[in-house]
Design goal:
- GO terms for molecular function: transmembrane transporter activity.
- Keywords: Cell membrane, Membrane, Transmembrane, Transmembrane helix, Transport.
- It is a multi-pass membrane protein.
- This is Iron complex transport system permease protein.
- With about 350 residues, this protein is mainly α.
- α4 crosses α6.
Length: about 350
């Protein structure tokens, strides 16, 4: 037991240190490069650590008002998508599942597209993330209602409903794109659907910090239940787990966290697929370690992916969703080929 706890502690400590270095790296590098040491000292000053340091007003503004909120939003979104991916893959017992498969991401995207198309986002900057979050909740409500009416408790049925809802919402978004009134509106819609973190502020971080942090902490409690459920429903029942209650609660929590993330970042795919798979290969299948590790792993992945999106074709900025797709699509293909080999074997 002591060895078990020690391993968890070492893994999480190494991941947390890597995350801190990733954040400092992402904040330091940009059109205006700031030395790592100065960046670290300014960050320490920002969180009220009493230190003596000198810095320019420009460096302080660039770090604390421009880059830091963007990087923190990336870390929060990456954490949410990653831990939700781990939870859903354990729940569905399928490594090819990610949070977007249950229709919540497309619902959030449709809400954001409506805000852009009908001009709500020009009234207040809060209307865009607000509409995306409402779209995610409505999408989840529809899927759960249809699932209940169908009287089929299988998670496979839920997955199929999510795929159908994704296709339906994608068709509606294509209609809005086709009838967009001007190029600026069309560009805004396409940028949102590609997923990006441009111009993210402290307000965006404050919108999502509570649901994502609380949701992630709560999800880590279900490590044992997910481990047992991997062995089958009958085994889970004999272990005293209320399968329906546990499953519904995890689904609701992952949907809310995914909706919160998509509300400020747009649709960013593959994070909830790539990070859990990498961690599972390195750390093993134990969800009691995978869940907390995915919080740090997802944050590291998206922070570094956002850095690549900013610097790869400078001064042109790629959407971070595009970078994640470039990385994630080959991994997805690899997973499919690997699962096919397992079946044939």
């Amino acid at each position: 037991m002591n060895h078990f706890c020690q391993r968890h502690f070492i893994v999480l400590l190494l991941l947390s240190i890597t995350l801190v270095f990733s954040i400092i790296l992402a904040i330091s590098i940009g059109p205006i490069t700031i030395p790592f040491k100065q960046t670290a000292l300014i960050l320490m000053k920002k969180i009220q650590i009493p230190i003596q340091t000198t810095y320019s007003e420009q460096a302080w503004t660039v770090i604390t008002e421009v880059r830091l909120p963007r990087v923190l939003v990336a870390a929060l979104v990456g954490s949410a998508l990653s831990i939700c991916g781990v939870a859903m893959q354990g729940l569905f017992r399928n490594p090819l599942i990610e949070p977007g498969f249950i229709g919540v991401s497309s619902g959030a995207a449709l809400g954001a597209v409506c805000a852009i198309f009908f001009g709500w986002s020009s009234v207040s900057p809060w209307f865009l993330p607000g509409s995306a979050f409402v779209g995610a909740i409505v999408s989840l409500g529809i899927i759960l209602l249809v699932w209940k009416v169908s009287k089929k408790n299988s998670v496979v049925t839920l997955l199929l409903l999510g795929i159908g809802m994704n296709a339906f919402f994608s068709a509606l978004m294509n209609v809005f794109i086709a009838i967009s009134k001007n190029e600026q509106e069309l560009r805004s819609i396409v940028y949102w659907l590609q997923g990006g973190l441009e111009a993210r502020t402290w307000e965006h971080a404050l919108i999502i910090v509570f649901p994502i942090v609380v949701g992630a902490v709560v999800l880590t409690i279900f490590g044992r239940e997910l481990n047992v459920m991997l062995l089958g429903e009958e085994h889970a029942k004999t272990s005293g787990i209320n399968i329906r209650l546990t499953r519904n609660f995890i689904l609701l929590l992952t949907a809310l966290m995914t909706g919160s993330a998509v509300a400020v970042s747009g649709v960013i795919g593959f994070v909830g697929l790539v990070v859990p798979h990498i961690l599972r290969l390195v750390l093993g299948p134990d969800h009691q370690l995978l869940l907390p590790a995915s919080i740090f792993g997802g944050a590291i992945f998206l922070v570094l992916a956002d850095l690549v999106s900013r610097m790869l074709l400078e001064p042109i900025t790629l959407q971070v969703g595009v970078v994640c797709a470039i990385i994630g699509a080959p991994v997805f293909i690899f997973l499919i080929l690997r699962s096919n080999q397992g079946v044939s074997a």
